[in-house]
Automatic annotation (TrEMBL):
Residues 1-32 form the signal peptide. Belongs to the peptidase S8 family. Gene3D superfamilies: Peptidase S8 propeptide/proteinase inhibitor I9. This is Inhibitor I9 domain-containing protein. It comes from the Eukaryota.
Length: 152
């Protein structure tokens, strides 16, 4: 009886470990994809439906003909200024896409941190000195944040 119970417990442990291995493999597949920007040169068609159709076709080819996977991976179509799109791709898919006709380059979408380098000098706010503006009180000018956003 004890031998049968030990065998059952061992079988359950093995099954549990197998399940964990399968689950870990699935998680790796899910997180292997990252966001890439596919740059396709200067603007093409002005018709947003045509642009989306072309982008979807390229993604369908990359996903082995699966329109559903192509739709899931598509994140954004760039229509103003240049032609391209953002999509979730694996590294292999991105490399394969870079070789496709009409694709200029494929690069990972990186989150950029905004920073200020010389804004204080540019605005004439150097050091702790008080800036006097004729006709205006400087008493209300403390703790004021002025920001410029230059998107390039």
């Amino acid at each position: 009886m004890a031998s049968s119970r030990n065998t059952t417990i061992t079988a359950i442990r093995i099954l549990y470990l197998l399940l964990l291995c399968v689950l870990q493999a699935q998680v790796r597949l899910c997180f292997a994809a990252q966001v890439y920007v596919v740059y396709m040169g200067s603007r093409g068609s002005d018709d947003p439906d045509e642009i989306l159709r072309q982008n979807h076709q390229i993604l369908t080819d990359i996903h082995g003909g699966s329109g559903e996977k192509a739709e899931e991976s598509h994140l954004y179509s760039y229509r103003h200024g240049f032609r391209g799109f953002a999509a979730k791709l694996t590294e292999d898919q991105a490399s394969e896409m870079a070789k496709m006709p009409g694709v200029v380059s494929v690069f990972p979408n990186e989150r950029r941190k905004l920073h200020t380098t010389h804004s204080w000098d540019f605005m004439g706010l150097v050091g702790e000195e008080t800036m006097e503006i004729p006709g205006y009180s400087t008493k209300n000018q403390v703790n004021v944040v002025i920001g410029f956003i230059d998107t390039g």
